[in-house]
């Protein structure tokens, strides 16, 4: 159940990142109109593809949560989401449109990803018993 709760938090954080990305792009477009500077369509298309990638990974993450939970597939989805964060930040920085709120949203998403990765990496009680049996106690 803990994994499902953390996955839900990740989905919520992804929505916050996308919301802040839209705000950043909107601000850039407003600047474009007032300054006459053109925003690269290629950059906007790349950001769109990254957002679509987030959506695909949210679907994958959701599918992996049904019993039996596919831990390896969850880890792959988390890695891809992490990669999408980096690429999105890089692309927005190229456009000089990154905001503090966008950066905070990305940091929040990274934190949620880290929590789930930690939870997935924590050995369960069944994994600890053999390790404890091999423990040597010395005086």
UniProtKB/TrEMBL annotation:
One of its GO terms (cellular component) is nucleus. PANTHER family: CYCLIN D1-BINDING PROTEIN 1, CYCLIN-D1-BINDING PROTEIN 1. InterPro entries: Cro/C1-type_HTH, GCIP-like, GCIP_C. Pfam families: GCIP_C (PF20936). It comes from Sesamum latifolium. Residues 43-61 form the HTH cro/C1-type domain. It comes from the Eukaryota. This is HTH cro/C1-type domain-containing protein.
